[in-house]
Every structure is written in structure tokens, then in C-alpha cells.
Amino acid sequence: MKGFGRYVIFLSSLVVRRETFKTYYNLTLEECVQIGLKSILLFMLVSTFMGAVTTLQTGANLVSPFVPRFIISNVVREMTILELAPTIMAVIYAGKVGSSMAGGLGTMRITEQIDALEVMGINSASYLVLPKIVASILMYPLLVIVAAVCALFGGYLVGVLTGLLTPTEYVYGIRYGFNPYFITFALIKTFVFAFLISTISSFKGYYTHGGALEVGIASTQAVTTSIIAILLADYFLAYLLI
Amino acid sequence: MIKINNISKSFGDKTVLTGITGEFEKGKTNLIIGSSGTGKSVLLKCIVGLIQPDTGHVFFDLRNFTEADKEMKSEIRREIGMLFQGGALFDSKNVEENVMFPLNILTRMSEADKMDRVNFCLKRVGLEGVNKKMPSEISGGMKKRVGIARAIVNNPNYLFCDEPNSGLDPQTSVVIDDLIMEITHEFDITTIVVTHDMNSVLGIGEKIMFLYKGSKLWEGSNNDITHSGVKELDDFVFTNKVMRSLKGT
């Protein structure tokens, strides 16, 4: 509870004594490049394979003359939109971006760079962390949309190349019984996960004390705590919104 | 002038500072000296507000910093320049961007004026032609100089230096010491240097405060430190043969 209290105080400290809009605008753009554009290849790679594997495994489990083939791509679509793209990608995002945030801030703390900002009269938490949160909330949903498209494309490639189903069947399955609300639900999840990962990782990094060993510990804690938070949030969001 | 009154600080059961009172004069290099673990850096951090003291007050030219509201604290901090032990340069910015950083954040100067000011400060600390180098590409001594340039770029009224010589060779240490002293006189600012380096003490210690186990034990200048008559200070000063031979003379 004490840790949660500190986390809430940390969040409230982000919005006081802010710098100019221009300062945040530039920093947020830099963060968008760092955490968004530089993650896109990894997201595309992972999601394409994820879609491909999901198609193969679903196909292997639906070998029945009573089940039409297009159901395979239908299952791939539901899994991708509801869980694989927003949630599994969040775990990868926590591992790549979250650990980087915690490590970067932790290093700044132990090398007195954060103290240097404070001495200059700058709210270091707001200056360093707020752009990361805003950039995450902007970029993570976009990354998830790209990931979802790549996953569906990966499934299409494998499904068609292995002869599991025809292109027409795959596309039909993707379109069959489509519920647009699931897209909205997936996007709500992405905003929540982006907020949780960026704030938890920043919190862990910002309050690092000690040396290089502690920076490593902070990075690890940032990833594990973020993943636990993602899974809990995933459950509650599904419970509340579906 | 900076005045501290009855500063005490404990971390849990460990008392680090006990009722420290003193004055640091304008236009002079004021030194806080003492062995490792005597609370020098904690006192410096209490003065600049990075650590909140348990008791006592810090006054920056009669402005009570300890009890000031956030606005006033922010205003006073913008008059402060600080050189950290490791330089504390921002890894992601090059030398020029590091020095320009306070101007970008704290002023509305034009780009050309900022550039002029940065080049002036870098030249003042003896660094030219390194504007585009990253902190990882320069030596420890150069990092300290960049740190000094960044500390003075916004024309501070108060300059704080935490162990400016740590990790430097004796020659570079003297260069940094001289630079700090020259800047203090040239810009007529209040400078406080935390150090345990005896060369610094004798070289630039215009006013010295000696801390021992968290308490102030002696105050004076580099001219009278060798005959203070305080045993703990003598033990600190005369640790090597050279210093002991000085005492003999």
C-alpha cells in the first residue's frame, strides 16, 4: 500500500510546476520516435509470426468436415483483436520500452542528472516523465493497430501457402460476424496498458537509489510490475466492458 | 551571501548533521571540508534544497529558502549553478546542448544570443571546438569544465561545487580550482565548494568550514588552517609527510 501511495503522489507531481508547452511538445516528439518508431519493426516481426502460428494451430485443432475452413481465420481475427495484439504486445512493450524507461531514468538518478534538473528549478518528474507517458499513450495504440494488421497478414500468408484455406475463405472468415465494438474495446485496452506501463516503469526508474546493480533491479521490477498490472487490468476491462 | 542556521539532518537512527550554523560570503570561495562521511555533501544538498533538513533554515540573501513556497524556491533555484561530483551532464545531449540547456528552459533568449553565451562560457572554461562532442567522448576533466560552463551560463548568483576534483589528476585539479576561484571573483558570486582535497583547501580556501562527525568544529581561512590548534583538524590536514613538514616550518 505504501508503494501504491508513493505511485499516486508521483503521478500527482507530474502535473505541477510544468514547463512551457513548446518544451513538452519537443520532448514528446522525441519520445514518440524513441518508443514508437524504433519499436515498430519488432512489433511487426512478432505479430506476423504470432498470426502465422495462431492460424496453423487453430487449423490443426479444427480438422473436421463439420467445421467450415473460414472459421480458422475467424478465430485468428477474434484472438488477434481481443487479446494477442493489445495484451501480448503490451508484454513485449513492457519488456522493450518499459525496461528502457526505467533504466534510463535510473541511470539519470544515480549519475545526479535528475538532481541537476531539480537544482535548476525544473520539476524533474514532470519534465522527464510526462512526455514519456503522452508519447506512450499516442504511440502504443498505433503500434497495436500495425501489429493486428501484421498478425492477420501473417495468418493469411501461412494459411494460403500451406493450403490450409484459400484466400477467399481466409478473407471471408475475417469479415464473418465482425463486431466493430471489439476494435473499440481493444483500443481502450491499449490506452490503459500504455498508461500503466509508462507510469509504472517511470516510477520504478525515477526512485532508483544506489548504483548500476539497482538500475538493473529497477528495470526488472518495472517489467514484472507492469506485466502484473497489465494482466489485472486486462481481466477487469474484459469483465467490465464485454 | 548564504546563511545557514542550526541545520540538522538524520537518516533513520543515523544523525548526519547536528546544528550547523554559518555564513558563506559573496565574492569568495567558501569551502566545506572534512573526512569522508562527515556530512559535507548532505549539508550542501540541504543548502540547495535537494534534501530537506530536519531543523534549521537556509537564507539566500535574507530570503528564507527552507520555508519558501514552491514559486519562491523555484525562483531562487534559477539563480543557482551547481557542479556535481561526476559532472551530471545529460548523456543524450552534446556539450553545446548541455551548456545551452538552462538557457532553453529558463530564458527567452534568441537562438543567436544563446549560442553566443554558450560559446563565451565554453571559452571561459578553456573548451573550444568540442561543442558537438557527446559527454561519453570527453575526459573527466573536460566533463567538469563543461559542468562549470553549464553552471555559470545563466549568470548565477550562487555557485555550488560538490567534490570538483574527485577523479582528476593533480594538475587538472588545480586548473579546475583556479577556474572556480576566478569565476567567483570575476562574477562576484557566492561559491560553496565541498572538498576533502588539501590542495584545494590551501589553494582556494578563502573561507573554510571544517565538519567533524556532523558538527562544525572550526571556521577560518587557508592562511590559518595550519595553526588552528584543533586536534581533529590537524589530524585531517597533516595526513602526509609533505604537510607534516610544512607544520615543522
List the helices and strands and how they pair.
The complex is a heterodimer of chains A (about 240) and B (about 250).
Chain A: H1 2-13, H2 21-36, H3 40-61, H4 70-110, H5 113-119, H6 124-161, H7 167-175, H8 181-206, H9 212-241
Helix pairs in contact in A: 2-6, 3-4, 3-6, 4-6, 4-7, 4-8, 4-9, 6-7, 6-8, 8-9
Chain B: E1 2-11, E2 14-24, E3 29-33, H1 40-48, E4 55-60, E5 63-64, H2 70-77, E6 80-83, H3 95-106, H4 111-124, H5 140-152, E7 158-162, H6 170-187, E8 190-195, H7 198-204, E9 207-212, E10 215-220, H8 231-237, H9 241-248
Parallel strand pairs in B: 3-8, 3-9, 6-7, 7-8
Antiparallel strand pairs in B: 1-2, 1-4, 4-5, 9-10
Can you describe what's shown?
The complex is a heterodimer of chains A (242) and B (249). By secondary structure, chain A is mostly helical. Chain A has one domain. In chain A, 83% of the residues lie in helices and 0% in strands. The longest helix of chain A has 41 residues, at 70-110. Chain B has 249 residues and is of the alpha/beta class. Chain B has a domain at 1-75 and 190-249: Rossmann fold, CATH 3.40.50.300. In chain B, strands 6-7-8-3-9-10 form a six-stranded mixed β-sheet, with helices on both faces. In chain B, strands 2-1-4-5 form a four-stranded antiparallel β-sheet, with helices on one face. The mean pLDDT of chain B is 89.
At CATH level 3, the topology of the domain at 1-75 and 190-249 in chain B is Rossmann fold
Radius of gyration of chain A, CA atoms, in whole angstroms: 21 Å
Supply the number of helical segments of chain A: 9
What proportion of the residues of chain B form beta strands (DSSP E)?
15-25%
Question: What are its keywords?
Answer:
heterodimer, A: 242 residues, mainly alpha, 9 helices, 83% helix, elongated, B: 249 residues, alpha/beta, Rossmann fold, 6-stranded mixed β-sheet, 39% helix, 24% strand, globular
